[in-house]
Every structure is written in C-alpha cells, then in structure tokens.
Design brief:
Number of strands: 13
Shape: globular
Strand content: 15-25%
Oligomer: single chain
Number of domains: 1
Radius of gyration: 19 Å
InterPro entries: Phytyl_CoA_dOase-like
Strand order of the largest sheet: 1-11-8-13-4-3-2
Pfam families: PhyH
Number of helices: 9
Protein name: Phytanoyl-CoA dioxygenase
Helix content: 25-40%
Largest sheet: 7 strands, antiparallel
CATH topology: Jelly Rolls
Length: about 350
C-alpha cells in the first residue's frame, strides 16, 4: 500500500509511482502540530456554525452531489467554501492551510514530471481549485460507489477514454514515452484520529470497471479488493478522484473533520472546469484578500498564537514568507478566475 512513516515524505519519484500504481498515497503527520491544532479549532467552530444554520453552504445528508441546500431536518455531512471571506476569520486559517508549503510541496511532486528541468514542476503551474470540509453526519449515511467525474452509466470504452483524458502528456520530449501526467490531485486531510470513512478500490483509477463492479449494488458494503483508508489526525491521503471510491459514516458519534481539497495544473486547460466550478467558487474567490490572509496576528478562539508566524525567525524571514505565500496564492487564483470566465455554464458532473 502507498503509505509513509510519520514525519517522512517520500521522494517525488516515489510519490508519483505510488499514485500511478495504486491511485492514492498516504502521508503521515504532514503538518506541524501547531498548524494542525489551529485548523482543528477553526473546523470545529465552522462545523458548529453550519450545523446551526449560520453558514448555508453545506452538503446535506441524503444528497451525494451538488447542488445542495441546507435542510435542518436532514443535517449535514460537509461544509463548502472554506476560503470564502464571508465565513469570517476562520477563512484565513483555512486559506493558510490550503496554501501551506507542506501540502503544496506534495502536490507539486505528484503533478510534476520525472524531468527535473521540466517547467511543469514549479509553483507557476498550480491552479487554485477546491477546499471543503467533510464532517460526521447526525445519522448513519453512506455514499454510493462512484468516480467523481465519470457517471456510472458510462460504457467500458467511455470510461477508458475519460480516465486517459484526466492525464496528459508531459511538455518534456524526454518524458513523452512515459506514463501520462496528472492534471490535478485531490486529498483528504484528517483533523481527528480514527478517520476511516474513505473506501477505495486500489488500481481502479487506471482501468474501466470489472463486470463484478458494474453488477454490484451502488451501496455494496464490499467490493473485491477494496481498502478502508485509515487516517490519524494530521495524516493526509492524496488520491485520483476517478478511483472507484465511496464514503461511509457508521459511527456518527465519533467526531470526523477532514479537509477535502484539490489543486490543479495548468496542463488541464478546461478539462477541470465542470468538476471545480460546479461547487460555486466563482461566486466568492475574487473577494479573498491574500494580503490579509497572510498578515501576522492570526490568533483567537482556541489558538494561543499565530501557528504559522511563530515558526519563522525574525522580521525579515516573516516578511519573505508572507510575500512568497501571497504571490503564489494570487497566481493560483488568477488561473481559476480565468477558467471561470472562459467556461460559462458548466452544469454538474454527477447527479443524486
């Protein structure tokens, strides 16, 4: 299984090999403890706000795919738009988590090529996509088996074509004979221990469904070869979102909060438009003030200090960190805004 020991991040080549082979890779304890604590506290406050009806952008129990509307009777299993400035101070905490060097370092490794000189491997290639929160629902709830951007009605030939389309040739001539490169990656970052809600079928990202998988009940409790992804607080699983997978919430008394994000690569072009824009990011992303997001003094609530600035030494290092983070975030946003303006009405990837 694609996994790492706590505090260790495998080499870029090893990460890419694991993702290509298995369709996912697990990194243990990816964030410094203080940053994890800040994100956990912000997520708790945001979850409480959303459950009370104070934040309307949620995933409603009983409905798997967008669009969702808040239903107090049904309850929620997710919170949308974590970086939307309308969320208040918590949006700054979440934005810092999304743009963290630890997360984006792995993203660049997964989306990069094996050619160290390839321009595909730098910050300028990244595209801002999605950042949401998955939480435990009030009652047991399960998602059906699915691929995020390929409907269950797709034929074998259609599946194979779509799976290949999600990976594109390298811009490097030396890499053209090797496996295609990814145009995005998706991840779940667990904020609580004993996170075991994601179930995947390793290797299914690279092939059409078997006949057994096609014939299975959409909510089948078991598919041949399935794996329950086990995460502790601070662990993250990066995965191909067209791997055959589902979410299962049985022990609803156990707190679950997982940051559910995705980051794109410019090589995707408009291929990612529907999967990303269907979540409504165009409505607020241009209003994010990254100068404010990365300003010093992010304290409050359960945080005793600024978990990001406290790890930096001296004013010069702090200023350099802020400018670097702000510049990268703004460039990533520019590409998302451009995608939104060029794409028009994209509809929805899946229904139900």
């Amino acid at each position: 299984m694609a996994d790492s020991r706590p505090g260790h991040i495998p080499s870029p080549a090893a990460l890419r090999a694991s993702l290509r082979r298995d369709g996912f890779v697990i990194i243990r304890s990816i964030l410094p403890p203080a940053q994890l604590a800040a994100l956990h506290a912000a997520a708790r406050r945001t979850t409480a706000l959303a459950r009370a009806g104070g934040w309307p952008h949620v995933r409603t129990v009983g409905k798997q795919f967008p669009p969702w509307t808040f239903d107090p009777e049904a309850g929620i299993w997710g919170v949308q738009g974590l970086m939307d400035p309308a969320l208040g101070p918590e949006s700054r905490v979440f934005a810092r988590g999304y743009f963290s060097d630890e997360i984006l370092g792995v993203v660049k490794a997964l989306l990069g090529s094996d050619d160290d000189d390839d321009d595909d491997n730098d910050d300028d290639s990244l595209v801002l996509e999605l950042y949401n929160l998955l939480v435990n629902p009030p009652t047991p709830f399960a998602l059906r088996w699915h691929r995020d951007d390929i409907p269950a009605t797709a034929t074998t030939e259609e599946e194979e074509a779509r799976l290949l389309h999600n990976r594109t040739p390298s811009s490097s001539s030396r890499q053209q004979q090797q496996q295609p490169l990814y145009s995005h990656t998706q991840y779940n970052l667990a904020l609580c221990d004993a996170d075991a809600s994601l179930v995947v079928v390793p290797g299914s990202h690279a092939r059409a469904r078997t006949q057994a998988e096609r014939d299975a009940d959409p909510f089948a409790e078991h598919l041949p070869g399935q794996l329950v992804v086990q995460l502790g607080a601070g662990d993250v699983v990066f995965y191909d979102n067209n791997i055959l997978h589902r979410g299962v919430y049985e022990d609803v008394a156990r707190e679950r909060m997982a940051l559910h994000g995705s980051v794109g690569h410019v090589r995707a072009g408009k291929a990612r438009a529907r999967n990303v824009l269907q979540h409504g990011v165009r409505d607020w992303v241009e209003g994010v003030d990254f100068d404010e997001v990365f300003a010093a003094g992010l304290a409050g609530g359960d945080e005793a200090s600024d978990a990001w600035y406290d790890q930096l030494q001296g004013e010069a290092e702090r200023k350099a960190w802020k400018e670097r983070q702000k510049a990268r975030a703004e460039k990533m946003r520019e590409k998302l805004v451009k995608l939104g303006r060029e794409s028009g009405d994209v509809g929805y990837s899946l229904t139900g």
